[in-house]
Amino acid sequence: MTDLVLTRPGASSSAERHWSHLPLGIGYLAARARQQGLTVAIVDAKILKHSSVQQTAEATLAHNPRLVGISALTVEFASALKIATLLKGHHAPPTVVLGGAHANALPKESLTASEHLDYVIAGEAETSLATLTKHVCSGTQPEGIPGLYCRDSGNEIIVQAPVGFREDVATLPFPAWDLFPRSTVYPMMTERGCPYECVFCSRNMSRKVRSRPLDNVTEEIRWLHRDFAPDEIHIEDETFGLHKERTYEFLAWLADFNRDKGIQFKAQTRVDTLTPRMAAMMKNAGFGYVELGVESGDADVLARSKKGYSPSQAEIAVKTLSDAGIKAWVNFIIGLPGETRESIRHSIELASRLNPNRLSVAIIVAYPGSEIYQWAVSGQNGYHLLTRDWQRFDKYLTSSVEIDGLSYGTMRRYQFQMYAETYLRNRRIRDLAMFAWKNRSFVRPFLNSLTQKERNIATP
Ligand code: B12
Ligand code: SF4
User: Fold this and answer.
1) Which of 200, 286, 371, 440 would be a feasible disulfide site paired with 258, CB 3.0-4.6 Å?
2) In angstroms, what is the span from residue 336 Cα to ligand 2's centroid?
3) Residue 372 Rama label (left phi>0; alpha psi -120 to 50; beta)
4) C-alpha 347 chain-centroid distance
5) Nearest 5 degrees, angle CA 164-CA 2-CA 120?
């Protein structure tokens, strides 16, 4: 028997397959459980490219688990419940617990959603999950576990102890990557949490920033290089470079370490966090791409979104990257608070001017845990929740929310237009052709829409 099997649902679309990176969440959970003497296996249906929930459930049951932990983002929640249902249909069903970003935001609602879930754990769960596993293995009742949601004798859902519990990031073991198939790209985090307040962000790891000691971070990079020889390491800090002196010290070490290794690094940061010195040091350390959340080209929309910076700062940041010789990956969102056709035009103009190496244009999603989700649920600030079908909570593919004056269809056309104009105006014909090919099912309706009733949206 295996004490704990951790799993996460497979990709439900070809677009989602694109996101099949190694997951830090279950990597850390497995490492902590193993450190506590428990036997652990991983069935990562995304990495294993499972084509059905049946395949995932069977592969999980093949380990003969006492406890199965399912990890799910909001968009994966429905698949997670299907896996739980299949596990419970087995003649010797394991105990099942759910965790991850969706459970962190809506723990009670998640447990209510299915009788096939025994528990939900909200929050960073390395220690709580290891403790729960020990109880399940020894047949004792779990008590006082932080963030553990369960049903009491009257079938009421209760939380055993406050979720406020956060992991001590300095003492966590490195993720158990040996339990996953070998990869060329490995993720890591040098700190958890982000202090900012963007209204669309679910702030999954709280606003409290917890930095790992630098010697612990550098040890992990040495270990990744020695044991897994990655081509790329992605630093997944929500905002890389929050503490300048710490960042400079880290980058100086990394430049030295990576001099003869050529590992490509990638990180995401804010336009007002990046400095010329940081960019130059990142280039020296081996950063090929840096991802920036520009989000909008409209000052009022940025202010209402609580981004705390202006469109001109985005221009400076992209120039800073380009001066340092680093490629910019720029993200925009259509449908932020106060968005109008005119403000979207400002975003299109900014995207075209920035002409980033890589452009991502998302449509607003009301992720549970974000302020926009609260607004959408209560109909505030012009937002309306269209569905609670969580599979539709994907920012590139489907609609979950609308804003007054901007239907989902309109936002989708603008999304297309932002890519098309940026590539066309900058004569990026190859990018335009690739984009049109990938979105061929949308090209015809888009062209039709320009010639029919919505002709006016192209140049408001
Ligand atoms: C890196 C990252 C990515 C990477 C890699 C994701 C991956 N598969 O690992 C990439 C770029 C691929 C990505 C893609 C997307 N991402 Co992303 N991503 C992140 C980011 C910045 C860090 C995630 C991370 O590694 N965290 C570190 C680990 C340690 O934390 P964790 O995974 O939450 O795990 C802890 C707890 O949640 C809990 N836990 C987790 N699993 C389980 C399971 C059990 C059983 C238990 C008990 C506990 C538990 O314990 C863990 C350890 O402490 C977060 C922001 C954030 N603050 O988390 C967004 C975030 C997770 N992403 C988000 C989204 C929406 C997406 C997309 C769906 C975007 C889209 N298309 O709409 C895609 C698709 C992802 C997919 N289907 O895999 C949202 C999720 C919000 C939500 N409610 O669903 C976040 C929170 C950002 C946001 N917008 O607020 N993402
Ligand atoms: S969007 Fe980025 S900067 Fe804003 S709160 Fe979320 S992680 Fe922080």
Assistant:
1) 286
2) 14
3) alpha
4) 23
5) 25
Ordered structural domains, the chain, with CATH: 2-159 (3.40.50.280), 185-449 (3.20.20.70)
Low-confidence ranges of the chain (pLDDT < 70): 14-16, 164-165, 397, 441-460
What's the 198 CA to ligand 2 centre distance in angstroms? 6
Identify the burial level of 139 via C-beta atoms within 10 angstroms of its C-beta, where 0-12 means exposed, 13-18 middle and 19 or more buried.
exposed
Measured from the CB, is residue 9 less than 6 Å from ligand 1?
A: no
293 pocket-lining for ligand 2 (C-beta < 6 Å): yes
Contact 85, 114 (CB under 8 A): yes
Ramachandran bin of 169, using left for φ above 0, alpha for ψ from -120 to 50, beta for the remaining angles = alpha
All residues at 6 or more sequence positions from 86 whose CB lies less than 8 Å from its CB, including other chains: 53, 54, 57
Q: Which residues contact 404 (CB under 8 A, 6 or more apart)?
A: 382, 384
**3-class SS at 431?**
helix
Return the pLDDT at 451.
57
- Which two three-digit tokens encode residue 41? 């296996």
- CA 362 to centroid of chain Cα atoms: 13
Which 3 state secondary structure label does DSSP give 69? strand
- Residue 239 Cβ inside 6 Å of ligand 2? The answer reads yes
So what's the pLDDT on residue 438?
82
Residue type, 422: T
The predicted pLDDT at position 15 comes to: 65
The per-residue pLDDT for 448 is 63
CA angle 157, 163, 165 (to 5 degrees): 150
Q: How far apart are CA 414 and CA 218, in angstroms?
A: 43
* SS3 of residue 362 by DSSP: strand
Query: In a mutational test of the pocket of ligand 1, which residue from 77, 236, 292, 333 has the highest number of ligand atoms less than 8 Å from its CB?
Result: 236
Q: Which backbone phi and psi does 166 adopt, to 5 degrees? A: -125, 145
Is ligand 2 within 6 A of the CB of residue 192? no
Determine the residue type at 127: T
Cβ atoms of residues 183 and 228 within 8 Å: yes
The finding on whether 311 has its CB within 6 A of some atom of ligand 1 is no
pTM of the full structure: 0.95
* d(CA 421, ligand 1 centre) in Å: 31
Per the CB < 8 A criterion, the answer to whether 338 and 304 are in contact is yes
